[in-house]
Each structure stands twice: as structure tokens, then as C-alpha cells.
Amino acid sequence: MANKHLLLAALAALALAPSAFAQTNLQVFYDFGKNRGHITTTLEGFYGDPWGNTYFFVDYDYNYRDHNDNVQAPSGSYMEIARCLNFWQETAVAPLSLQVEYNGLPGINQNFLLGVDYFIHNADFSNTFNFKLLGKTFSRGFTSDFPVQFTFVWGMQDLFGVKGLRFNGFADLWGENVYATSEEPGSEKFGKEAKFVFISEPQLWYNIGQHIGVPNLNIGTEVEFSCNFAGYDGFYARPCFGLKWIF
Fold first, then answer.
1. Within a 13 Å sphere around the CA of 17, how many CA atoms are in the beta-carbon half?
2. Rounded to whole angstroms, how far apart are CA atoms 36 and 170?
3. Which terminus of the chain is more solvent-facing, meaning fewer CB atoms within 10 Å of its CB: N or C?
4. Containing domain of residue 140, as a range?
5. Between the CA atoms of 241, 174, 128 and 82, what dihedral angle is there, to the nearest 10 degrees?
6. In a domain, 3, yes or no
7. What is the tally of structural domains in the chain?
8. Could you tell me if residue 57 is inside a domain?
């Protein structure tokens, strides 16, 4: 899946800025990673209000193929929705919010998370960072000896002084009892038990549309770095190329 939290670092400031309160974007990626080779779409939104902010995204992988290896339909979906509550935006503890979140793979595993979010930024909000500490529940037989998730989200606008160049992404680390498998060329598939899952998806975007009168259009890349994620044992790096349209 193309994954997630991609607006949070850039737009967490919206909870503190009443004049700017929403953004929705659509990302379309081609995944070049091992065992991938398909398109993924992500619809993503962030909305601030006087009580905090709401974030969501929905992923679809397009990899359901016929006997001729032609893509026929989406092969899987994943979604998250998170609500940060902040009734003290005019106080000294304004950077700290309470967060409740739901995420899930339909029919496989669903998670509810509850915890805190801490937001920091530079003077003009061009560099933003969120640190999250969340308790996590599991469903359908999934278990964890340490059901806690640590999340770091970042956004850096006009990177290296280049107007329209943006570096953003997230890193998640959580406790989960998993049995991950791996299949390398020339070897048999094997499995290994693990106690944690890690995933990070840094993105680099360039607002190419600013040069052609269409500032909504961005081109960029994403790399998924993961360990014990989605049933794969060990470390993987899966690059993507994509387009993003900001509504």
C-alpha cells in the first residue's frame, strides 16, 4: 500500500490557523518494488476546526489479474481515519493533542488506537514534526506483547530553498506478534517469528504545475522501507513513482 500520514506534518498547523482549514489530494503511484509492479491510488484529506483536526486516507492496490496477467480490478484496500482533539489551542500546551484512530484491512485486521500527539514547527511552519504515542488494539486473532505504536511524521517545504520541493513522510513502529515469511531467488520460502513491525514511507514531491499554470499538479517519488510488514520477514525497500493532484 502507498501509505499514510502524508498531510499531517504539513497541515497540523491548520488546527492553529483558523483561516486555513482543509486539504484533499489524490496520489497515483506505480510501485516498482519486489513482488509489486502495480498501481496504487491514495485519497487523502486533512481538515482543521476549533476542536482539533481530522485526517483520513484510503488506499487501493490495482493488482487483481486475469490468466493473461492483465489487471482487472482492485486487489486490496486499506484505510485510516484519525481525530486529534485539542480544546486548549490558545494555551501553553497547545502543541499537545489527544488522538483516537481507526485503521484496518477489510476482513483481515482492524485496529483502534488511542494516545497523544505532540506537534512542533519552525517560525513559518515550513518545517513541521509530529510525535505520537498510541496504545493499539488488535482483532481476528492478532496479538501483541507490547501493544503500543510510536509514530513520527514530518514535512519540509521548499527543501534546500527550491520553491515547490517538498520532503515529507512518516515512520511507524509497533509491537505485534507476527510470523513473517520471505522468498529470495534460489532459496526456499521460510518463516520467522517477530515481535514488532516497522514501516516508513518518505516522499519527495516537486510542484511542476507551478511552471505551466496548474499549481495543483505535483510529481514525485516514494520509497517504502519496512521490516516484518505485511507478512514479509526482514527489511525491504520498495520504490514508487507518482503524481499528486491537490484539490
1. 12
2. 21
3. C
4. 8-246
5. 90
6. no
7. 1
8. yes
Looking only at the bridges linking them, the beta strands covering 165-182 and 203-206 are antiparallel
**pLDDT tens sequence across 187-231:** 455 567 889 999 999 999 999 999 999 999 999 999 999 999 877
Is residue 1 a part of any domain in this protein? no
Would 239 be classed as within a structural domain?
Answer: yes
**Cα angle 12-18-21, degrees, rounded to a multiple of 5:** 55
Helices (H) and strands (E) in the chain, counts: 1, 15
φ/ψ (deg, to 5) at 160: 60, 25
Please state the pTM of the whole predicted model: 0.84
Strands 217-227 and 71-73: unpaired
pLDDT digits (tens, 9 = 90+) for 20-46: 457 899 999 998 876 677 899 999 999
Report the alpha-carbon angle 106-109-110, nearest 5.
85
Q: What are phi and psi of 162, to 5 degrees?
A: -90, 115
DSSP summary character for residue 12: G
CB atoms within 10 A of CB 168: 24
CA 245 to CA 223: how far, in whole Å? 19
Query: C-alpha angle with apex 39: 75 to 222, nearest 5 degrees?
Result: 125
| Residue 19 pLDDT exceeds 60 | no
- Give the type of residue at 129: F
The runs of H, that is alpha helices, within the chain are: 8-11
